[in-house]
């Protein structure tokens, strides 16, 4: 808010936020954040005690519904330990979520789905900077992943009964250095080509926007070469 010159101080920002109905701050720290100025705003009469109670009520109502104030014996989550992390149940749920989140934009001549039984003895090429680079597959709000649980497109496709070849074309999403020969060599000898393109956090994240939606670097050229 200060950066957009809507307010001049944290105190003004706290008052404006409270008046707008905001009751939760994603702060930079406990010692110097916007809502630490609420007591001063209350003392100066910029906000009322009733307004403060109205803003706080839904927060504590939610915390009560989540069981934060219940005795530990009443909260089933209090008995959880690290054994649940990456448990088979959770990994299966993650797999289900991944499968259900795919979006099919176009399916020319019914190419998809590919069936494993139809890929026996087939040559499958997986190409692109996202084909086998675990680091670029996660967003900037993701936890630190464990490499042994990461299935890149290449690793996943290699579980199929097919002869899988791989060519990155360019090693990073920026794709400034592109090897056309590498991609053409893999794609030209394949019956099926899977092209893995995108942006990733190297190209765009929160507070690092782009001016257009085009593929970065030589990625479009890579796609055109694979199609041709």
From TrEMBL:
Keyword flag Zinc: no
SUPFAM superfamilies membership: (Trans)glycosidases, Beta-D-glucan exohydrolase, C-terminal domain
Name the record gives this protein: XYL2 arabinofuranosidase
Domain Glycoside hydrolase family 3 C-terminal stretches: 103-226
Record PANTHER family: FIBRONECTIN TYPE III-LIKE DOMAIN-CONTAINING PROTEIN, SUGAR HYDROLASE-RELATED
GO MF assignments: alpha-L-arabinofuranosidase activity; xylan 1,4-beta-xylosidase activity
Signal peptide (from-to): none
Assigned keywords, A-Z: Glycosidase, Hydrolase
InterPro entries, per the entry: BXL (IPR044993), GH (IPR017853), Glyco_hydro_3_C (IPR002772), Glyco_hydro_3_C_sf (IPR036881), Glyco_hydro_3_N_sf (IPR036962)
Annotated GO biological process: arabinan catabolic process; xylan catabolic process
């Amino acid at each position: 808010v200060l950066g957009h010159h809507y307010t001049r101080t944290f105190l003004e920002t706290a008052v404006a936020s409270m008046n707008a109905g905001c009751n939760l701050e994603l702060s930079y720290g406990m010692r110097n954040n916007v809502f630490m100025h609420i007591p001063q705003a209350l003392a100066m009469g910029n906000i009322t005690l009733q307004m403060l109670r109205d803003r706080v009520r839904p927060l504590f109502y939610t915390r009560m519904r989540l069981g934060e104030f219940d005795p530990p014996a009443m909260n089933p989550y209090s008995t959880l330990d690290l054994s649940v992390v990456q448990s088979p149940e959770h990994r299966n749920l993650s797999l289900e979520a991944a499968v259900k989140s795919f979006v099919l934009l176009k399916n020319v001549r019914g190419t998809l789905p590919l069936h494993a039984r139809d890929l026996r003895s087939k040559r499958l090429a997986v190409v692109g900077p996202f084909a086998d680079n675990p680091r670029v597959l996660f967003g900037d709000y993701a936890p630190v992943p464990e490499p042994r649980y990461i299935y890149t497109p290449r690793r996943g496709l290699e579980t199929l009964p097919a002869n899988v070849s791989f060519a990155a074309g360019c090693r990073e999403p920026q794709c400034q250095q592109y090897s056309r020969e590498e991609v053409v060599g893999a794609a030209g000898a394949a019956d099926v080509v899977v092209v893995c393109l995108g942006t990733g956090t190297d190209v765009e994240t929160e507070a690092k926007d782009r001016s257009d939606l085009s593929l970065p670097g030589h990625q479009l050229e890579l796609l055109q070469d694979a199609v041709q």
